[in-house]
Amino acid sequence: MNDDRKSILEMLAAGKITTDEAERLLTALDPKPASPATDTPDAYASAFTSAQGRSKPPKYLRVLVEADESTTGLRGGPTTVNVRVPMQLLRAGVRLAGLIPPQAHDQLDEAFSKHGVPVTLSQIKPENLEELIDHLGDLTVDVDGKDENKTRVRVFCE
Amino acid sequence: MIPWSASIRVHWTTHRPAAPRQRRLHLWVPLFLVWLLLLPLVLILFPFVALACIFVRINALRLYATAWSVLTSLRHTFVEVHSPAASVRVHLA
């Protein structure tokens, strides 16, 4: 049993994900004839995307984080974060960002770039809002730490 | 639809040397009552917010509409943090 499969089953046993979610994640991990290698990040991302079935637009943005004891400094087991945000809330958030007065844009952009987030608020406009949300639907971020630092971050839409 | 209720679940362990105990707190918060209580306050604040919007050159109607859309889209938000020491789960329904 590989590590991914084991961690999904552990999350199911701990009640952090539902049986449906576990089934979907396990299906995503199954090697398929069309894409036999799921070890590479691209193949893994496409497996996630195909498993979610893109016939309907995504409703939620999911963020799963799992950090082990060496990262958190807390003894007794890993620390997990499981967040589900409705896409509608992201839409509203972008709209809210569009209401920020122009005179505050420069200060905010500077603060963002200082913290390593290259975002220009003036570029977020209602007309490109739908395009932004649509592209989020195809987003899958999967980050695995190195051996000594077992932190896993997964961001995907469902 | 605005969220009508929130379920909050907090589990933590008290670290007493003699006997560590697992504590649990399960809360169901009827948000519809909170909205009802806040409604008069919001109505009172409406004109003041509109005045502030004029000063900072924001369309007040757009602000109200956006605030409403933020409120209505909060439904089905789920946040769970689990650590060895404690776990917190918040679900808006």
Care to describe what's here?
The complex is a heterodimer of chains A (158) and B (93). Chain A is an alpha+beta fold. Chain A has helices at residues 3-13, 19-29, 41-52, 69-72, 87-97, 102-114, 129-136; strands spanning 60-67, 79-86, 140-144, 151-157. Chain A is globular. In chain A, 14% of the residues are buried. In chain B, 4% of the residues are buried. Chain B is elongated, with a radius of gyration of 19 Å. Chain B has 93 residues and is an alpha+beta fold. Chain B has one domain (5-92). The A-B interface holds A 14, 16, 60, 69, 72, 74-77, 79-86, 88-89, 91-93, 95-96, 99, 101 and B 56-59, 62-63, 66-67, 69-70, 72-85.
Note the main attributes of this structure.
A: 158 residues, alpha+beta, 7 helices, B: 4-stranded antiparallel sheet, 2 helices
Helix content of chain B: 40-55%
Into how many domains do the coordinates of chain B divide?
A: 1
The low-pLDDT segments of chain B are none
Shape designation of chain A: globular
Strand content of chain A: 15-25%
Instruction: Please tally the helical runs of chain B, counting DSSP H or I stretches of 4 or more residues.
Output: 2
